[in-house]
Amino acid sequence: MMVVVAAALALSTVGCDRPGIFPTGDTPSEVSPVQTGSVSPIHTGSVSPVPDPRVLQQVFSDLGHDLPVRSGDTITDAGLVVRVTGDEEIHLVAVHPQIDEVVDGQVTVIGTYVHEISLDGFGSPYGIQRGYPPTLPPSELIPVAGAVLRHNDFPDVSYEVIIGLSVVGGTSHVSAISIDYEGSGGVATLTFRQDLTICVTPPGATDCRGA
């Protein structure tokens, strides 16, 4: 049996304690590509060797989070919300998490979307929820490949990244999320910090300690 987990940022968490979400205003701390085994390499003749970390800004983050699950559960987890900082359109190519298999973890990416939201008082991130796909209007879920992100101040427009993960068992840790994008300089990758531990536990467990 499989547990499906989708990475999504939230103001509240289902099934476990979390420190909450806070605005960071951070730009990514590293820009090297992340290998996950579930995303094909990007083959292009125009790869930017030094991506500009200023084109996307992480506006909310959810760090230090344990998510215990049971076999057969499904999860939507959007752990990253970004906004475009300049006037240039950003064309997405792929999104993929860096997954560390802590204890016999077996995780596969099964779906990626972006969801446009306004954080100026009229909207909030979907958050970490059990159940995948997310219970959002299908018309609001934009497939990552080919999605176009634009800067907009009035209203403020941000994008939450939704990643679906299929979890077979064990314990896995998502330490980063990478966004492959195409801009005027070619195709490049930006990597943003993430900190999510996913574990398959017996009934009644509230965290991943001892998993």
Q: Could you walk me through the main structural features you see in this protein, from its secondary elements to its overall organization?
A:
Helix content is 0%, strand content 47%. With 211 residues, the protein is an all-beta fold. The model is unreliable at 1-49 (pLDDT under 50). The protein has a single domain, classed as Jelly Rolls.
Topology:
Layout: E1 3-7, E2 22-26, E3 56-61, E4 65-69, E5 75-84, E6 90-103, E7 107-117, E8 129-130, E9 142-143, E10 148-149, E11 158-167, E12 171-183, E13 186-200
Parallel strand pairs: 4-13
Antiparallel strand pairs: 1-11, 2-3, 3-5, 5-8, 5-11, 6-10, 6-12, 7-9, 7-11, 12-13
Brief rundown of the structure:
The chain has 211 residues and is an all-beta fold. Helix content is 0%, strand content 47%.
Keywords for this structure?
211 residues; mainly beta; Jelly Rolls; eight-stranded antiparallel β-sheet; five-stranded mixed β-sheet; 13 strands; globular
Q: Give the class-level CATH name.
A: Mainly Beta
Count of individual domains: 1
What is the helix/strand order? EEEEEEEEEEEEE
Mean pLDDT over the residues: 74
Structural class: mainly beta
**Termini distance?**
18 Å
Strand content: over 45%
Indicate the percent of residues in helices: under 10%
Task: Indicate the CATH architecture.
Answer: Sandwich
